[in-house]
Amino acid sequence: MPAPMLNATLKQEARPQKTLELLGKGWSWLFLFLLVIFFSLSGQGFFSFFNLQNILTDMAFVLLIALGQTFIIISGGIDLSTGYVMGLAAVISAQVVIALGTRLPLPLVVLIGMGVGVIVGCIPGLLNGLLITRLAVPPFIVTLGMYAIVRGAGFLLSSGQPVSIATPGIGDLGNDAIIYLLPTGGISFFRVPSGLTPAQLRAVIGLMPFQLLVSIVLVVVCYWLLAHTRFGVHTYAIGGNMQAALRAGIPVSRRLVQLYTLSALFASVAGVLYMFRYTGGTANAGDPLLIDSIAAAAIGGASLFGGKGTIIGTLIGTLIIAVIQNGLVILDIDPFWQFIAIGAVIILAVFVDQAKAKLIDK
Question: Bridge-partner residues for 336, per DSSP?
């Protein structure tokens, strides 16, 4: 076959493969776009400012846990303990705030409660990393055992009951926003000004709730860690081929301990924010979010076999889950369908990942 005809034939064969590769990389963006279009056309006020802000606010807790889970999955592991680590941090921080009460200034109470909750919440992650590296126990087994231990500790500390906070100002901190747009055309920072009528209060628009701001900051930090630091390079290398990473001189054991501690850190931050938002803590606060966090990372392109994944992908995966949950509620569909829908999307994500791997092999 003449060279020009051969080149033309090869180009024609390459086009479908490039299209499939492009769809494989961007399917989650396309899927999110189609979901937004579908729920918007269904009416019911889905595509409104207030509802979109509710979606972003409600997804903050899942996103925080999913950020830590992304690092773990990229490294070739899994962390099943994060849901109850979040609950433990919420319970501990709530109990510290209650114990301090009004004996100290509110900012100091807040800082101490946050600090103690996060520090205690990081302990299970540190133990996970040490057990996995020192005893060579598979991450699934270690984190499953830690799941049960932390679950029991949280319920014991709270006596199996929600820990409610009566300290003034805690609920305001957890539910306030950075900027408020007033119906009079003015702007207020951090607090809604007093003296507004009930009708004016309903018209106030809050921009950037605190928990959403924290999530955005941590997304930026995680993106930088994973994409622009040696820590990120090591994480991908460990998940891609641990033995090769060891031969390359990467401190695999130390990195794994850091990764599992980091995962617990993000879950603890989610627990502290939960305590502020709901003025209390419950041991099972994060239990329903565990599967969602793993799903968010997988939908976003993190391979459950390790070595692949991005923070932006996890952000998109979290948005997909939040849109599905919110849209089904607006359509007044039985909430149990949410589990089925998210499970189906997880299977779809794994199928796409496998399809992409086959295309690369070809």
Answer: none
φ, ψ for residue 258 (rounded to 5)?
-65, -40
Give the CA distances from residue 278 to residues 163, 172, 249, 301, in Å, rounded to whole numbers and listed in that order: 10, 10, 46, 32
Tokens of 194: 């007093």
Instruction: Mark out the alpha helices in the chain (DSSP H runs).
Output: 3-41, 49-58, 60-74, 82-100, 106-134, 139-158, 170-175, 198-203, 210-228, 230-240, 242-247, 252-278, 289-299, 311-330, 337-361
- Over 70: is that where the pLDDT of 254 sits? yes
* Pair 194, 131: CB distance under 8 Å: no
The mean pLDDT of 281-301, rounded to a whole number, is 90
Lowest-pLDDT range of 87-91, 339-343, 357-361: 357-361
Nearest one of 65, 77, 80, 78 to 238, comparing CA atoms: 77
pLDDT at 33 over 70: yes
**178 φ, ψ to 5°?**
-75, -40
Say if CB 243 and CB 306 are below 8 A apart.
no
What 3-state DSSP class applies to 126? helix
Per domain, the residue ranges of the chain are: 39-357
Q: pLDDT category, 224, cuts 50, 70, 90?
A: very high
281 and 162 in contact (C-beta within 8 Å)? yes
Block residue for tokens 């408020």: 180
pLDDT for res 6? 45
Alpha-carbon dihedral angle through residues 282, 173, 61, 99, given to the nearest 10 degrees: -30
* Rounded Cα distance, 145 and 351, in Å: 29
Q: Using CB atoms within 10 Å of the CB of residue 286, give its burial: 0 to 12 exposed, 13 to 18 middle, 19+ buried.
A: buried
pLDDT tens, 50-76? 788 888 888 899 999 999 999 999 999
What is the Cα–Cα distance from 215 to 210, expressed in whole angstroms?
Answer: 9
Residues 6+ positions from 153 with CB-CB distance below 8 Å:
88
- CATH 1.10.3470 assigned to domain 39-357? The reply is yes
